[in-house]
Amino acid sequence: MSAHPEQPLIIVILTALIGGVWIGTQFPTFVTAYPNISLYLLIGIFFLSSLTIDMRAVIHALRDARTVIPAVVFTLILLPFLAYVVTAPFAPALAISFLLLTAMPAGMTAPLLSELAGGEKHTALVITITSSLLAPFTVPFMVSVMAGHVVHVDGMAMFLRLVQAIILPFFVAQGIRIYALRGISSVSRFFTPFSTILLGGLIAFIVAKRPDEIVSLVTRGESLPELLAICALFISVHIVAYIVFFKKALPDRIALTVCMAYVNFTLAVDLADKFFGTRPDIVLPVVLSVIPWALLFIPFRVFTHRARATQIRR
To answer: Which of 29, 64, 234, 286 is the most exposed, fewest CB within 10 Å of its CB?
Structure first.
């Protein structure tokens, strides 16, 4: 990923949104003929990301339990609880979208984004791996407990899908690293652009399932308030995370904020489609989350660089 990861992401996402509407309109039987495409695309994204993970660095960073445990609990439990409770009284459907987004583990790009922002890369790496491996247990639990009274949630089916999408590709990739590390290193520069293409395919496939509903939401202007609300959510997460971990050293504080704010929205998109596919008012906000996810990193990086410069001057 380049120093400006938001540029290719936005292009791919916009292309995927338009392409998904076109595919769904012109080839309506395609998505029904291949219902498991989204799962395969998600597995591919996690597999490529896992190939770049050095478990020795993760195990070494795990020794700092005082950082890891509070961060993971805050990421997977407290943050989705707060997001849902605050939003549900005013916008029940949007609250479910917020719940899905904030219940996600840290994104696989968090270590790189942390490094670009001046944070501790290894701290971000261990939070990413720990939260990802725990997500199959915590995500179904949080969604069932918080939103089970509003919508039907098949917790076991969600757990099994997360195991397929996260745990299996992770351990397969780690096994391959043992025997082919040199080969992986020689081609790893292609992983990020290929993963971005897979992400575009995932979003296009999900949009293609419901092109009329998506177009209707956009043309009626209903997506704009949702987009603004999602931007407000992401900004709030940045602020809350940065404040909550104020006692940590600045590099760790930056890394933890990145892990809280730059979650695995790819996983959220897939789960929204799989378990709330009949509710475009829930699915579309999750898809739109890629916009603040990508764009907010620019001002956040400016802020962290200034914070580091101020600390050095002191």
So the answer is: 29
